Amino acid sequence: MHGMDGSRGFSRPIISLATMILAAMFFLAYTQIYHTSKTASLVARTQEVLFSATNVLAIIAEDKTASRGYALTGNASFLEPMSGSRTIIHRKIDSLRQMISNNSAQEKRADSLLFYANRSFAFEDTVIGVIKSEGIQNALRLLSKCTKDEDMDKIRMFANDIQNEEIILLQKRKQDDANATNLLEGIILLLIVFFIVLIFIYRRKEKSAMAANKTNKEYLELLNLQINQSNDAIYMVDSKRKIKRWNLGAEKMYGFTESEVLDKDPNDVLGTRITEDGIEKITNTIAETGYWNGEFHRKTKAGEDIFVAASITAIRDNAGRITGYLGVNLNTTAQKRLSEKVDHLAAIVAQASEAIISVDLDDCILSWNHGAENLHGYTKEEVLGHSAVELGLLKLTEAEKSADLCEMFEHGKS
Predict the structure, then answer these.
(1) Among residues of the chain, what percentage have pLDDT more than 70?
(2) CA-to-CA distance for 86 and 319, rounded, in angstroms?
């Protein structure tokens, strides 16, 4: 009886200690899940910031392209994309500012981005107003004074600074999370070993198998849900570029379901127009910087050609080795088509058989097409920056030059 009582007396503290260890293990496991879930939310927010900054650039560029197209052609259809772009851009930048509100430096960059966007819009509105009230030639004179688009350079600079800062913060968050995860796993492993020793002492004749393999299942499920609900095309490939994840946004954009593309190279499935050298350059850039931004020309399942703004981010393990890539695609086909129309109109002018020349207010030649080359015998490189009088093409008095300029602006001829 005494031996039994002694055994019971010995077992009580062992059971109490084992219960405390189990409680500590559950608490640490809960803490790890909480931190990984929080990190997943921060990763998703960072991706949203990157997407939003890219979208802001695209909208401002589309607005500027439309204004330039209208200035060159006088075709009012170019103004249609501008009707809602101002409201959209303010909403986008305000949303971007809210996402980075916990970082004062990022907030200042967003404010600067808004300032230069408004200034760019104001200039484009001025150009459009001049076209409507004074004619295309006066608008072209106004544009010719702006040889460098400083506002757009500032916009690109601040947008890139925002993106770069978020990428740096994202890498730091991932590293901090990886360090915390390693520490928690080490503590949990020690507790498991101690618990097994206690069980062995308490039940020598009983064998207990304890599984110590902790995964990030909850984290992956949460991240997968957030990615799947995004309107942008988001997919994940392994280190061999085989698709492992394919969200609903990708299904909507390209028409392929996830089952149709799993374990396939996205460049093969989507008919990406890129060479092996191009792929190698992108891969090397990602290996050096951790990400790549650019444009792809692809085909949908229905055979439609589309252009996408692509962002690819490296996925690394705790040792820093690349284990895969996260791709985000934004359909920019409409903007691309608009830009092609503007380029086509410029090409028509350049290839016209008639001599078409434009000059600035100092009579210096700004453009010189093939018709002018054929007529006068000078190449474009030989005449740019010179006046027709300097080249001996015209022999006019100052009064005659002033009269010709007045007639040119009055009748819209160049």
Answers:
(1) 78
(2) 45
Tokens linked to 42: 């921060």
DSSP state of 50: H
For residue 4, pLDDT beyond 70: no
3-state secondary structure labels for all residues of 161-178: HHHHHHHHHHHHHHHHHH
Nearest residue to 309 (alpha-carbon basis) of 285, 275, 335: 335
pLDDT at residue 14 in the model:
61
pTM value surpassing 0.70? no
| Whole-number Cα distances in Å, 141 to 38, 46, 71, 124, 130 | 55, 43, 11, 14, 10
Give yes or no for residue 210 having a pLDDT over 70: no
Count, residues in the chain: 414
Torsions phi, psi for 331 (to 5 deg): -70, 115
DSSP SS3 for 11: helix
pLDDT tens for 323-368 read: 999 999 999 998 888 888 877 777 777 777 787 888 888 778 888 8
Is the pLDDT at 119 greater than 50? The verdict is yes
Question: In sequence order, what are the residues at sequence separation of 6 or more whose Cβ sits closer than 8 angstroms to the Cβ of residue 367?
Answer: 349, 356, 357, 358, 380
Q: Quick one: average pLDDT of 6-13?
A: 51
CA dihedral 335, 336, 338, 340 (to 10 degrees): 160
Q: How many H-runs (helices) and E-runs (strands) does the chain carry?
A: 14, 7
Nearest-CA neighbor of 58 among 85, 87, 28, 29?
85
Distant-in-sequence contacts of 304-308, Cβ < 8 A, 24+ apart: 305/333, 306/253, 306/331, 306/333, 307/331, 307/332, 307/333, 307/335, 307/336, 308/233, 308/253, 308/332, 308/333
